[in-house]
């Protein structure tokens, strides 16, 4: 039976990726608080650590996506924000 719970835990990565940034961050904060304040068994701590790592990765990816979108925005002559083409780093090395 313990292996069934491990398999259920393996389904979380796909679920974590689809979470909105704010929800993933809130869950991550809850995990950190639980790990800091409670005396949890080692297995539970490891499971929470793994989930927290996945959530942190999700948050980082979403922040990187947002940063790219912001970098692509430029003001037009009329003062409107417009999405510009992103220059690839490979082209700058030539």
Annotation keywords:
two-stranded antiparallel ribbon, Helix Hairpins, mainly alpha, disordered N terminus, single chain, 2 strands, 94 residues
Percent of residues in beta strands: 5-15%
Helical proportion, percent range: over 70%
**What general form does the structure show?**
rod-shaped
CATH class: Mainly Alpha
Strand order of the largest sheet: 1-2
CATH superfamily (homologous) name: Exonuclease VII, small subunit
Structural commentary:
The structure is a single chain. A two-stranded antiparallel ribbon has the order 1-2. Strand 1 (73-75) and strand 2 form a beta hairpin. With 94 residues, the chain is mostly helical. Helix content is 71%, strand content 6%. Helix 3 (21-37) packs antiparallel against helix 4. The protein has helices at residues 2-10, 12-17, 21-37, 42-72, 89-92, and strands at residues 73-75, 81-83. The chain has one domain (2-92): Exonuclease VII, small subunit (Helix Hairpins, Orthogonal Bundle).
């Amino acid at each position: 039976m313990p292996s069934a719970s491990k398999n259920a835990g393996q389904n979380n990565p796909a679920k974590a990726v689809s979470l909105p940034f704010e929800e993933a961050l809130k869950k991550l904060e809850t995990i950190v608080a639980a790990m800091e304040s409670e005396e949890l068994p080692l297995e539970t701590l490891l499971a929470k650590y793994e989930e927290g790592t996945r959530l942190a990765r999700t948050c980082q990816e979403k922040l990187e996506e947002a940063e790219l979108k912001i970098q692509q925005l430029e003001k037009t002559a009329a003062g409107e924000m417009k999405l510009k083409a992103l220059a690839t780093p490979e082209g700058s090395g030539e």
